[in-house]
Amino acid sequence: MPRLFTAVLSLLLLTGCSSHEKAPQLRSAAQLRSNVGQSIRVVGTARYLKASGPSVAGTDFEIRVYPTNAWGPELDGKPVEVTGRLNDTHSITPPDPSINPGEYWLSNATWTPQLESKP
């Protein structure tokens, strides 16, 4: 019996216990407030402004992305999927003084390009 337990424990440690599910997708601005502090995913359009850095635009919202070197102007207008922790100025001190009160941002963001849809 101890060998079986050791074998199962070893297998779990080697393969990992965590699931590889994607974070929940944020689809509208109405979901922002209820998801603060959570890891979320946004499928949208990459934006880049020299003054503020990268952001991702959904259907009816736009969220700044940190780190600010996540992407540059070459990605502006391209479809992306971005995952990160959703923050707002009411729950945490912003990483940048240019963030306005009530503004949201994604921290520790990672992104992947999405295929562009053909008309």
Fold and architecture overview:
With 119 residues, this protein is mainly beta. 12% of the residues lie in helices and 34% in strands. It is built from one helix and five strands. The chain has one helix at 2-15; strands spanning 39-49, 53-57, 62-65, 79-88, 104-113. Strands 1-2-3-5-4 form a five-stranded mixed beta barrel. Strand 2 and strand 3 form a beta hairpin. Residues 11-18 have low confidence and may be disordered.
Brief sketch in words of this structure:
This protein is mostly beta strands and 119 residues long. It contains 1 helix and 5 strands; from the N terminus they run H-E-E-E-E-E.
Q: Which secondary structure elements does this structure contain, and how are they paired or packed?
A:
Blueprint: H1 2-15, E1 39-49, E2 53-57, E3 62-65, E4 79-88, E5 104-113
Parallel strand pairs: 3-5
Antiparallel strand pairs: 1-2, 1-4, 2-3, 4-5
Number of helices: 1
Radius of gyration equals 18 Å
Name the overall outline: globular
Low-confidence stretches: 11-18
User: What is the chain-wise order of helices and strands?
Assistant: HEEEEE
Q: How many strand elements?
A: 5
Helix content: 10-25%
SS-based class: mainly beta
Give the rounded overall mean pLDDT. Answer: 86
